[in-house]
Amino acid sequence: MKIVTGILLFFCFVSDTFASESIELGIASSVESAILNENRPYMVYLPPAYHASENTFPVIYLLDGDVHRFKGLVGVLESLSTETLGSQVQQAIVIAIPNTNRSRDLTPSTLTQWTFNGRVLDTFEQTGKANVFALFLEKELIPKIQSTYRVSDKRVLVGESFGGLFAAYVFLHSQSLFTDYLVIDPTALWDDNYLNTTYEANFKQPEFQSNIYFAFANNAHLGEIGRTNYKWGSDFAASIITSSNANSRQQYFENETHGTVALLAWYSGLKFLLPTTEN
Fold first, then answer.
1. Residue 13 has pLDDT above 70, yes or no
2. How far is 274 from 199, CA to CA, in rounded Å?
3. Calpha distance 30→35 (Å, rounded)
C-alpha cells in the first residue's frame, strides 16, 4: 500500500510541475502606422531553430490574423517543419495581422452595396483601401520585421476569403512585395468578377515570377453564389498559372467548405511553397 501511495504521490507531483509551466506560442507587438493613421497590432511566432542558430528564416504574413488563426497556422507549420511530421517544410517566422477594419483594408475597389445578380450580399461603410493597406505592409510593417528579426528574402502572404482577394490583388499590382502567395478560397465574386476583369484589362502578356498556390472549397451548398465564386476564382487561377514563370498550382477540396478549407490549404500550401531542400 505504501508503494502504491508513493507512486500516486509521485505522479501528482509531476502533474503539478507540468501544470505550472507556461507554454509560449509567440509574442504580441504593434507598430504605429502613419499610413493608416492607427496603431496596428501583430503577433510573432519564432521557430524552434531561431534561438539555436544564427540562420535567417522565411517570413509568413498571415491576414485575418486573430489569435485562433495564428495558433492554427503555427501548429500546422511547426508540425510540418520539425521531426514531428518529418521536417517536410522550412522553419519560418509567422507574423499574424489582426483586422481593425476588414472591409476597408482587404477590398480593392469601393462598394457601399455588394450585389450579385440583383441580390444584395452585404453593405459596407468603408471599402476599397487595399492599395493603402498594401502600402502599410511595404513601407511600415515589413521593414519593422526586417529590422527586428533575422529574416531571409523569402516572404509568404497567406490570405483567405477577403484576405485571399487582397492577396490576389497584391499579386497583380505589387507582385514583388512577396515571393510566395497562398490564396485560400478568395472572394472572386467581389465587384462583379473584379479579379478576372482586372487581369484581362491590364495583363495581356504578364510574366509572373512569384510562386502562388490557390486552394478552393466546395461551396455548391450556397447555390449559384457558391458555384460562381468557385468558377470565377478558378478561372483567375488558371490565367495566372498559364502566365507564370514560377511554381504555381490550384487545388480543389471537394469535401471542404469556405469555413473549413483553411486547415488543408495551410498543410498543402506550405508543403508546396516552403519545401525543404531534401524534398
1. no
2. 27
3. 14
Asked whether residue 266 is assigned to any structural domain, the reply reads yes
DSSP 218-252: --GGGTHHHHHHHHHHHHHHHHHHHTBSS-EEEEE
Residue 160 resides in a domain? yes
User: Looking only at Cα atoms, what is the longest distance across the chain?
Assistant: 83
Number of domains in the chain: 1
Residue 126's domain spans which residues?
Answer: 18-273
* Per-residue confidence (pLDDT) for residue 154, from 0 to 100: 98
Does a structural domain hold residue 8?
no
Cell numbers standing for residue 101: 477594419
Predicted TM-score (pTM) of the model is 0.92
In a domain, 233, yes or no: yes
- Select from 253, 270, 235 the least CA-distant residue to 158: 270
Helix (H, G, I), strand (E, B) or coil at 202: helix
CB atoms within 10 A of CB 100: 13
Which of 26, 31, 45 has the alpha carbon at shortest distance from 141?
Answer: 31
CA 142, 275, 71 angle in degrees (round to 5)? 55
CB-CB neighbours of 30 under 10 Å: 12
